[in-house]
Design brief:
This protein is of the alpha+beta class and 143 residues long. The protein has two helices and six strands. α1 packs antiparallel against α2.
């Protein structure tokens, strides 16, 4: 299993200076984990959040939202394992989308990044460069 991703064209917004140092951010805006067991524990927490998303019913928010399928949750767990193996920081949060997708979100000093898992082996990596109103959108495929 490998991750295929196009070269990013920008970094992202919405700074959170308290968590990351500039040395931990690669030139492509990806945060590389340097906290060892802290990141391992956070990745385990995120995996548990994904398992909890599996239990959501349709209309989980009372607004008619579609629950992510079990296959999509399995795909998101697979992506999380790939990102962890590639020493990326665990996302700041993982949430179910209202249309049956799953979002991984990072708030970095260089900006905001989200990965939306749209199918069991497919996602979109969105990054919004500081000061920009136009995100870069990169397809990700694994499996």
């Amino acid at each position: 299993m490998s991750l295929v991703m196009e070269q990013p064209r920008g970094a992202t917004v919405f700074a959170r200076e308290d968590r990351y140092s500039s040395e931990e951010i690669g030139t492509n805006g990806v945060y590389f984990a340097t906290h060892g067991s802290l990141d391992e524990a956070a990745w385990e927490d995120r995996t548990n959040e994904l398992r909890a998303i599996r239990t959501l019913p349709d209309d989980w928010d009372g607004e008619g939202s579609v629950a992510p399928s079990g296959a999509l949750v399995d795909g998101a767990i697979g992506l999380a394992r790939i990102l962890q193996r590639e020493d990326e920081s665990p996302p700041d949060r993982i949430i179910a989308g209202v249309n049956g997708t799953i979002f991984f979100e990072w708030y970095l000093p260089v900006g905001y990044r989200e990965i939306e898992v749209v199918a069991p082996g497919s996602a979109e990596d969105r990054r919004l460069q500081d000061g920009s109103k136009v995100p870069s959108v990169l397809p990700i495929n694994w499996l």
